[in-house]
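This part of the workshop introduces the protein records we will be handling. Backbone structure tokens are a discrete shorthand for how the chain folds in space. Once this layout is familiar, the rest of the handout is easier to follow. The record below serves as our worked example for the rest of this section.
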Amino acid sequence: MLRGRVVGNVWATRRLAEIPNGAFLEVEVEGGSGRVVAFDVLGSGIGEAVLVATGSVAAAWFPGTAPPIDALIIGSIDENVPVTT
């Protein structure tokens, strides 16, 4: 699992029918690991901190035959929660 921040949208004029509703977003991975294009079903926005699952774990989230997606945004990180000890 990767932690990152959404830095942009990826627009596609045509898509495979197997891909459900959602958006492709460019995510800058924390720790200088570069960027990935991840599929988002949560409605994440630019600047938002997110968790990304990759590989077969991302593809397995979809019911039935998995679409050709290998990075999936699975969570939104709430950075405004106070830390208690």
In short: The first strand starts at residue 2 and ends at 10. The chain is about 5% helix and 40% strand. The radius of gyration is 13 Å. The chain has one domain: 2-76.
